[in-house]
Batch of 2 targets.
Target 1
Amino acid sequence: MRILPEISRTFGEYLLLPNLTDEGCTPDKVDLSAPLVRHPVGERSPIRIATPLTSAIMGAVSSPQLAIALAQVGGISFIHQNQPVAEQAAMVAAVKKHKAGFRYNDVNIKPSATLEEADRLLREHDRAVVIVTDDGSPSGAFLGLITAQDFNFHRHQAGDTVESRMRPVAELATGTPGMSLTTANSLLWDSRQDVLPLVGDDGRVTALVQRRDYELHQQFSNESVDDAKQFRVGAGVNTHDYRERIPALVEAGADILCLDSSDGYSVWQKDVIEYVRKEYGDAVRIGAGNVVDARGFRYLADAGADFVKVGIGGGSICITRDQKGIGRGQASALTEIVTERDRYAEQTGMYVPLCSDGGIIHDSHMAIAFAFGADFLMLGRYFARFSESPAPQVKLGGQIVKEYWGEGSARARNAARYGQGKELAFEEGVDGYVPYAGSLYDNVKVTLAKIRSTMISCGSVSLRQFHESATLIQVSQQTFVQNSEEVDRNDRPTVV
Ligand code: MZP
C-alpha cells in the first residue's frame, strides 16, 4: 500500500490570474484549434479540430443530429457504443452521408467586410449576388457571394418557407436567415445537387451554394477550408466485440475511434490498439482511456494510443467514487498526466494529446481545464442540455428539462463498459434531468466567447501558449464550499 502525499483536487478549486494583455491579444486572434491525434513533436497532428470540444460517448448525448451540429461548429462527436454494431455503424453513416455545410467563418469571406468592398467584388464577378444579414446596421453584415443562378435555385427549392431575402447589391436590403439546417439538409438530400448550405453564425442556413461558387468564395478566403467536405465523426468501441465493431465503423466512415471505459489502464485496451495497428496501420486512429495517473498514461501511450482520455469519477452522473472508491479529482489527474505527456514528448519525440473527460460544470471550468494543459475536452452534461441531443425533453415542475443518464446507470445497462460483459451487478451512474438550454449553435458560440475572453485576459492567443503561461491559484476552502452549494442548486442533474 502507498498513500500519495497530495490531495485530490478538482476544477472548482482553482482560479486563473490575469497575465499582461497586449495589442496582439484580441478575441478574434484567439486560435482554439487543437491536435486530436499523436504526432511527432514540431509537426502538425494529422487530425486537428477547430473547436476543442468533443461530445461524450453516451446514449443520452451523441446522436447523428448532435454530431452534425457539433461538426459544423468545429468539434467532433463520438457516437455511443452501447448499442448493436449495425445500429452504431448506421449512425456513423448517417453523419457521413450529409454534405458538409460551411459556416461563413470557415469560408472566411471576412464577415466584417464593408459593403463597398462587397460591391467591388461583385463588379469583378458580374453574376454574383451579395448576401447580407440583418444585424441592425443600415447596410447589414456581408456574408458572402452567390450567383444569381444559385439564388434562383435556392428560392425555387425552398419555396415559400425561406424568409431570407437576398438582392443584387444595387438594391441592397437586409435579409433574415430563416431556413433551419434540417430543412436545408433535406433539400440537399432530395435535390441530389452538388450544393452546400452556407450557414450563418447563428447556425441557420443563409443560402445554398453550388460547389463552383464556393470556389469563388475561396478566392477571397485567406484560410483553407475542410477538404473532406463531409462532417467528421468519431465512434466509441469496447474491448469485447472490437473485432466485429471496428471493421463496421471503419466501413461506415468513422474518422476516429475511442475506447470507452471507466478504467482504461488494462491489457485489454492494449490488445485493441495492437489489433488496430495490425489491421489498419495508421489509417485508423484510436484514443484510449480513461486514466488518472502517469502510469496509466504511459501504458496507453506506449501501446500506441492516438490520444489519452483522463478522468474517473468526475462525471456529473457518475457514482463510481461512491460505489467502488476509485477516482481522482480532475485537476490533480491532469496535473500529473500533463507533466507525463510533456516528458513523454521529450523522451520519445511523440506528442500524445490529452482529452479531459467529465466534470465540467461551469463554462469557466473549460478554461481551467485548458490552463491545466488539456488539449481538448469531452463533455456529457453540457451537450445533453441542447435541442440536438437525442434525450427526451420533458416538463418537470414548470421547467423544461432533458433526460440525462450515465452509461453505468441501470437505464443504460451498459454491460460492455461497466459489467465486463456480464449483467450489471451494481450501478455506477445515475439517471436524471438537466435544464434544457436551447440550441447547440447558440450555446457553443457563447461558451467559446468566454474561453477566448479568459485566454486574452491571460495573455494567450493559442491553447499551446495558454498551457505554457497560465497561472492558477487555489481558492480557499470557504469559496469551494460556496461554489459546491451553488452547483448543487443550479447545475447538477436532478436525480430521479
Ligand atoms: P459530464 O460531462 O456529464 O460531467 O461527464 C461525462 C463523462 O462521464 C463521460 O464522458 C464519461 O466518461 C463519464 N460517464 C458516463 N457515464 C457514466 C456513469 O454512468 C460516467 N458513471 O461516469
Note: The radius of gyration is 23 Å.
Target 2
Amino acid sequence: AVRDTAEEEGCSVYLVGGFVRDLLLFVPTQDLDFVVEGSGGQFATALMKRMPDGKLTQHIQFGTAQIIFPDGSHLDVASTRWEYYSFPGALPQVEESCLRDDLFRRDFTINSMAICLNAEHYGELVDYYGGKRDLQQRKIRFLHNISFIDDPTRMLRAIRFSERYQFDLDKETREALYTAIESGVLSKLSVERFTEEILLIFKEINYLGMGRALISSGLFKAWFGKEYDWNFDFEEQEDCASWSLNTRWLMALSKMDSIAICKLLERVCLNKSLRDDTMTFVRMREALKEPLTLSELDRLVNKAPKGVVMVLARDGRFSKLIEEALEASQRINMSLDGKALLEMGIKEGPGIGEILDRVRMAWLEGRICTAEEEKGIVRQ
Ligand code: CTP
C-alpha cells in the first residue's frame, strides 16, 4: 500500500529509524516510522484510502501524522524535516528538508538509516553516516557533538541502546556524554520528558544494567541532585524480567528511606498508578514498623496491591509478618457478604461492615471454619 501510494503521490517514501536498525539486527520490532520527501500529511491522507480501518491523527506543528489500527498498532508518517532547538531540552522547531538532513538530525548513526519504498529503488538501504558499520562494530556513535546538548534525553537513550544491544559507546560519544552531564544540561529537561525516558528504561529487559549505568555515569546524581540508594543489584537467579513496571520501580527504591523516596518523587512525574503504589509502599512500610494486631495486619496486607506486598515481603524486617498475614488469610472461606446479611434481616448501615469484619477476624484467628459457624458470629 505504501509503495502504490508513493507512486500515486509522486513522492519518495522511506522507512527510517529504529525499524531499520532492528531489521538489520534481526530483532523483531513493531513500530513503523515513515518519512516522506514532500508532505507527510498529504501522503498519510492518501494512504488512508488503502487502509480503511485505520484512524488518522495529524500534528501539523511537527509535520507528522499517525495512523492507528483497531488492534492498537500504529504507523507514523513524517515529512523529512530539519529540527532545531531554541534552547537545550526544548521541543524542536521544525522545517522541511531533504532525506539527508532529516537523517543527520537524528541521535545516533545506528538510528540514521533509511530503506527506500519507491518501486524503482524498493528495499535499498540509505546509509549516509555509517550506521551499518557501527551496527557491525557494535558502537553507539552520535552524529554531531552537540547532540546531547540539543536534546538531553539522548543521554538516557545512549545508555538504553548501549545496554539493550550490549554495544559500546564510541570514545567521543562517551566523552561528550560525560561532558554534557557535568555541564548541567540535564537541568534544561522537563520533569515530564525525563520521566518518560526513565520509564522506557524500566520497561526494558535489561533495565538493571541500564540502572547501574545511570548511576555510574553520574547521570542520576546530576538529575536527582544527590546519591540515592538505588537498588539495581539483584541475584542472577531472580525473576526480575517478569516483574511488572511498578514492581521494578518499587524494587529499585526499596533500599531508600521513606523521606528520601518522597524527596525523589519531586523529580519525577509519575502516572497515578505508579505514584499510588509508591505512596502505599512508603505508608505500609512505616506501618509495619509499629506493633499491629492481626486484624490491622490483615487489613494492610490484603488491601495493598500485590506488587507492593511482594516488594515488602522481600525486606527481612517484614517477611515473617507478611507471610503470617497471607497464611492466615488463606484460612478464610467466607460465605457471607453484605447481601446475605440483609437477607438475614440485618439493617443496612455501618453495622454490616462491622459484622463482616468480625466474621473475617474469626476466620483469621481460626475460631471458625464452616458457614454455619459464621452465622453464630453474626448472632453474637
Ligand atoms: N530520535 C532522535 N532523537 C531522539 C528520539 C528519537 O534522533 N531524542 C530519532 C531516532 O532516529 C530514532 C527515531 O527518532 O530511531 C524514532 O525514535 P523512537 O521511536 O523514540 O526510538 P526507536 O529508535 O524506534 O527506539 P525503540 O526501539 O526504543 O522504540
Note: Residues 272-288 form the longest helix (17 residues).
